[in-house]
Design brief:
Strand content: over 45%
Mean pLDDT: 96
Number of strands: 7
Largest sheet: 5 strands, mixed, barrel
Radius of gyration: 14 Å
Structural class: alpha+beta
Order of helices and strands: EEEEEEEHH
Helix content: 10-25%
Strand order of the largest sheet: 1-2-5-6-7
């Protein structure tokens, strides 16, 4: 199966990079799936979105992503997030508490964190 190079980077650190067979991300234009050979594009990521990267070995990497951009070029995909957390790093109880917030953005962030952690919302 064809592969592409993918980087998931937040302002403070690189979360993941490697070979992947697909990327799914939520942009302001809607959810987009990217496969190797995708046409070059630039998309704005939504606040409280989830990115899914299917690694070349078949494993799935999920991350809660809060704003930023997705860039697709002939060399691969770069996900440049303002803030992001890998699903395996998320404190599920803390995320559940965020669902009780009066702030809509905080609730959306909590929902994305739970989805990335593989938890029901």
């Amino acid at each position: 199966m064809a592969e592409m190079t993918v980087q998931l980077v937040a302002v403070e650190r690189r979360l993941w990079s490697g070979s992947a067979t697909s990327v799914v991300a939520q942009t302001t234009e809607g959810e987009i799936g990217i496969l190797p050979g995708h046409e070059p594009m630039l998309g704005e990521l939504v606040e409280g979105g989830v990115v899914r990267i299917r690694q070349a070995d078949g494993e799935l990497v999920t991350a809660a992503v809060h704003g930023g951009f997705l860039s697709v070029t002939g060399e691969g995909v770069s996900i440049l997030a303002e803030d992001a957390e890998l699903g395996e790093e998320i404190d599920v109880e803390q995320a559940r508490q965020g669902l009780q917030s009066d702030n809509v953005a905080d609730r959306e962030r909590a929902q994305a964190r739970l989805k990335a952690a593989g938890q029901p919302v």
